[in-house]
Structures are given as structure tokens and as C-alpha cells.
Fold this sequence. Notes:
The complex is a heterodimer of chains A (about 180) and B (about 500).
Chain A (H helix, E strand, L loop, with lengths): L4 H28 L1 H7 L5 E7 L8 E7 L12 E10 L2 E6 L10 E3 L4 E3 L6 E3 L4 E3 L8 E7 L2 E6 L20
Antiparallel strand pairs in A: 1-10, 2-3, 3-4, 4-9, 5-6, 6-7, 7-8, 9-10
Chain B lengths: L1 H11 L2 H8 L2 E2 L10 H20 L9 H10 L4 H28 L8 H24 L3 H14 L6 H9 L6 H33 L10 E2 L4 H10 L3 E2 H27 L24 H9 L2 H25 L3 E2 L6 H23 L8 H4 L12 H12 L2 H4 L16 H4 L2 H10 L13 H12 L12 H12 L7
Antiparallel strand pairs in B: 1-3, 2-4
Amino acid sequence: MTVTRRAFLVKLGVGFNALVGALLAVPIVRYILSPVSRARRPGYESWLSLGAVEQFPPGQTRLATYRNPVVNPWDGETATIACWVRHIDGGNFQVFAINCAHLGCPVRWFPQSGLFMCPCHGGVYYANGARASGPPERGLFEYRYKIDAGHLLIKAGEIPTPGRLAASGTERSSWA
Amino acid sequence: MHNVGDWFDQRLQLTAPVRATMTHPIPRETASWFYVFGSAALTVFVLQIVTGILLAIVYVPSAGEAWNSLQRLNHDVNLGWFMRALHGWGSNFMLAIVVIHMLQVFLFGAYKFPRELTWIIGVVLLLMTLGMAFTGQVLRFDQDAYWGLGIAVSIASRVPVLGSWLVGLLLGGPIIAGATLSRFFALHVFVIPGLLIAFVGLHLLLVLTLGVNEWPMPGRVVRRATYLQEYHQLTHEQGVPFVPTAVWKDIFFSGCVLLSIAACAAVFGPFGPGGEPDPTIVQTAPRPDFFFLWLYAVLSLLPPSLETPALLIGPAAALLVLLGLPFVSGEGEKSWKRRPIAVLTILLLAVALGTFTHLSSRAPWSPVMDAWSRAPIPSQYLKGRTALERQGALVFQAKQCHNCHALDTHGGQRGPALDAVAVRLTQDQLIRQVIQGGGNMPAYGKNLSPAETTALVAFLETLHPAGQPPARDASRDAALRASADGSSSLPP
């Protein structure tokens, strides 16, 4: 089969454009994936202070807030994240994510009954974060914490979601 | 005037093709009020584009300012509230009309040969309309939008392997914040509308090329070999021109829809925005918009173990069914009178979605977060009670039992109403249930002192209808009597 000169030139032109398109696709795809590649290096999480340890009396569970470490000037209130701090006793803490382990709604602490309740789909947790009832398949997400110079610090910076347990440090078992 | 028209037409040469399109023949019976929904959806889409552009003049797609700019639109900009209301109600009407259009197409068998591709593009258009509804709810950047995004990424995170990637791509960062709103703005304003316009164009082109579906007659069966010829006969020998025979109904219906949207907008006003999107305000009960309420019920009622499979497989399966429909039943009867399974499927879907939506408006699965401090115990349950029983009523309130259990229809419905609990459970069973929980109830053993438990159970034992005795454990009575007699007839 003979290929005419013009047909060959058309094919050559198409091939040339495909090559340029592929070259352009690389930066475009990398641009789109930038939030994902950022998560791997250097990562979103860092140690953040929730305030002096004295703000959290032993035996109580209190709401604390922190400013997310990775933040844009136009994030407004959304960059301030809440969490529940439970001071068990003598410097033993549990810091729970505000997000229900079911689908992420904000859980509320009820000190009288010692339960966290979720207003969305009815998930309920005990004071230690363990699942009590409702649709969640697990207990509340926990942040790693440490006490430094009288301040309570947690490792945070990413929204905890049910599927991202292994990837993030919010699982207590990963804390040694 | 004529000369100007001629000048343009000499250059554009559009008059002839436009006239041919307008007067193309359609089957006589399709000049019907049943065939007006597609054009109405298009009309509302145009309204959404116009009002959307008008809102974009003022709206600020920034997480820190979006909510304030919506307040400015509602209160300061002249008729800004009306533009928001038109866009919000337009969105509801558009979804409703798209769904009605789809129902009509399905029940009239219009997806069958040769209109399979028209149906498939219609399914894509439905998905995009739903996508517009969700992204639009996000742009109304309030508490519901914020936590709705949290739910969306929680669902996305459950996708195996790709979950955390999807979360990152949806959020544009580690948390729901400025980057998230910016990308949903791009989706709502550029990406999805651009695709919608392209696919609507293709959809219309297919309708014109293949012709409007004829009125289905029982017994007139679609066969690939003969259909095109039969349709040609229906249109070219017995047909009528689209303009003006059919189009006046489309125009009138579209006008009525626009008027209804304007009336709803004027009377009911704009949707929200609700509370400020401040994630540290935990006193909130997020709810989805109307068209996603059924999903809210499904997510609450599915057993935990079924949830992830249902969430991930369900939508894919539904999509596969919709896309595969014209290939599975591309021929055969079109009339709903000869397609009982089709009619039953629609009825089943309607009943299911209606029930879920209705349930979601009451959300019995959610604890009523303030029932313990707001809903008092009905006075008839306190009258003539002992001090211990009243103490138990106090425990009932203070320990938030009321958040999940109703008394005299007030309070939560997460657990059973307790108006007659003493008839169902004996004293021992009540104690066990309170302390150990179970059956989806938390265990209260750690949070109740023995005295509190005794008081609470004493109160619960008074909860039985007048004239209906409380449940008693017969063997316990016998044991007590025997021990009182001193001479036990029971084995030791």
C-alpha cells in the first residue's frame, strides 16, 4: 500500500500534535495532583499546641481548638479546627477528632451521661472514644499527643476520614 | 428591516435550515402535554445560567468571605435575595423536571431503538444536574455545606486503594478550607456547566436527527428491521409540523414553570445561608438539601457492615442499570400498558424514595440533642409518684435519656418510646438494659451510681398505661414468697 505525500504529512502533523499534547499533559496532571503529592512529602501534619495543660482539668473532657498548620490567608474560620480533649488523670490524655467516625459530622460531648453523640446519623461513643451505638464501625479518631513545657501538643493537620486510618497518624495503635 | 435581515442571511445562510428544523414533521399524537418536560428543563437551565452569572457578579468564592458575600446578597444588594431565590428554586425545579422528563421517557419506551444514545446522554445529564445540585449546595458556604463536604470526603475515603487520593483531590488540601471552595466553584461554574451545554446540544441534535418518540400504542412493537420505516410513515404521511402544532404547549408550559419559580422565590425567599461555616461551632445538626434527603436516610438506616459496600457498589450498579437499559430492552413494547414490570419498578422507586425522604424530614435516627434540657417530662408521669420515682425522673433528664427516648411523643426517637416500657420489661430486665445497654443502646453502668440506677428503674417501672399491669417475673415472685415463708418448695 502506497502512502501519498499529503496523507503522510497529515499523519505526521497529527503525531506531532499528539506529542506536544502529551508534553503539555504532564504539567497539567501534576498541577491537578498537587494536593495529593503534597500529602506525601513533606506531609500536612505537625505538632500543634492546644494550650497549657492546666486548661484541661483531670476527669473532664473539654473542647479545644487549633489553627491548622497548612493554611491559606483566605481560609477564614475554616482553618480553625476543634477537637475534644479528655484528661483522664495525671497527665494521661485522649484527644479525639471532632469528626464522627461514621461520616464526619461534629460529635458533641455530654458530660452528664458521659457520651459523645453525633447529630447526623445517630452515632454514640463512650467517654474513652469507644463506639457505643449507631452506624459507626469504630471508635472516635484519636490524635497523637505529647506534653512539652507544660503545653498539650497534638499531631494534626489533616481531616480524619474512615478510609484514611493507615495513612494518617490518627490511629492510636500507630502511636508508640 | 427586510433588507437588514437579507443582508445577514446572505452571509449566515441560517434561515433555511432553521425553518426546516422548526417545521420538521412530528407524529401527530406527540403534540401533547406529556411531551413538554424536555423543553421545560432546557428553559430552567437557561434561567440557571442567567441567574448564576448574576450571582457571580457579587459572590466571592473564598472560604473566608463566601458566607459574608451571601449575606450581602441577601440583605444589601438590591434584589440580591430575589436572584438567590430564583437560582435556588430554579435548581429544585430543574431537578424535579429532569426527573419527571426521565420518567416520561422511560414509561413511553422512548429509550428503545434507535434512541439508545439519546437516553445514555440523558443519564449523563441527570448525573450532571445532580452534580450541579451538590456543588451548588457547597457554594452556599454555610454549616450544612461544610459538614456536607465532610460527609462527601468520608464516603470518598472508603474507596479501596484510591480513597485518600480522592479525599485530597476533592478537598484540594488537608482540610475543608479555601482550596476546597475554589475547586467546587470551578466545578459549579465552569466544568459541569460547560459539559452540560455540550451534552444538552448533543441530546437536542439526537432528538432532531432521530425524531420525537411516537406516542406508544399497545401492540405497536419496536423491531430494528422495520421501526425506521414505520416511524417515517408516522411523521411524513400522518405527521404535523413541530412549529406551530406542538411548540405552543412547550412555550406555555415553560412559561408556567418560570412563573412558578418566580412565585416560589418571591414568597419563600432564598435558601439560607445557614450558620457560619465555622467548624468550631459544634452545636449544629447538618442536614442535606431536599434532593439528597433520601440518601441521608439510607446512610442512617443501613447496617454498619453493609454500608461501605452499598455506598461504593450501589451507585455503580444503579448507573450500570440505567446505561444498560436500552441495550437490554432495545426492542419490544413501548406502551406502559404492556410493561407491568416497568410500571412497578417506578412505583417501587417512588415509594422507597418518598418514604426515605419523609423519614429524613423527621430523622428519627438522630438523637434530639437538646431534648434533655428542653422537653420536660409530661406531668401525668410525675403526679402521685414517690420521692424515689421522681428522683428517677430527674436522672432520666440529667443523663440525657430523653435525647433518644420519647415520653408522650416528646424527645428523641433513636430508641423506643418509653411510655409503656414497664409492660415490656421486668425490673431485672430494666436494670440490665440500663447498665449493660445492648440493642443499639449504650451501656450506662459507668455513668450511673447504684442509687441513680435504683431511682431511674423505679421511675421506669411506673411507665405503663392505666389498667395494664407492669411486667413481672413470675419465678421471682415465687422465690420471694418462698423465702418469706421460710419453707422453700423450690429446690435450693
